[in-house]
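Example record

The entry below shows one chain as it appears in the dataset: sequence first, then structure tokens.
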Amino acid sequence: MEENLTLRDIKPLMEIPDYSYYIFIGAVALVVFVVSLLLYFLVRQWWHNRKTNLKKLYFQQLKAVDWQDSKKAAYKVTELGRYFSQDKRCDEIYRQLLPMLEAYKYKKEVPSADSETLNQYNLLVHVIDESL
């Protein structure tokens, strides 16, 4: 009689697909992507501000050049003027100033700066000030 007691209406357990692992990996990947994108933009903004601050520092040094020693002043203006050559207008004025500064370089004794050179230098400083 025990042979007739087997249950025939209960079905075996059905396998249910579990996608929670893939959803978790996708969510983590999305969060990592968003955080890295945010970090990229923050670093880029910081780098841009750093360059701007360096330009302001170079401008302050350019503005404070002492023309009593025209030889040192010519070298300093030549060095600092290069940093502002990205702007077309500043680059043009700087290129006009360079030949004027050549008279004060590469010599042992140099005369004091003439008014034309000083006017060109002041124009360069004024244009750079407007662009910053």
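Notes for this example: The two ends are 101 Å apart (CA to CA). The chain has a mean pLDDT of 89.
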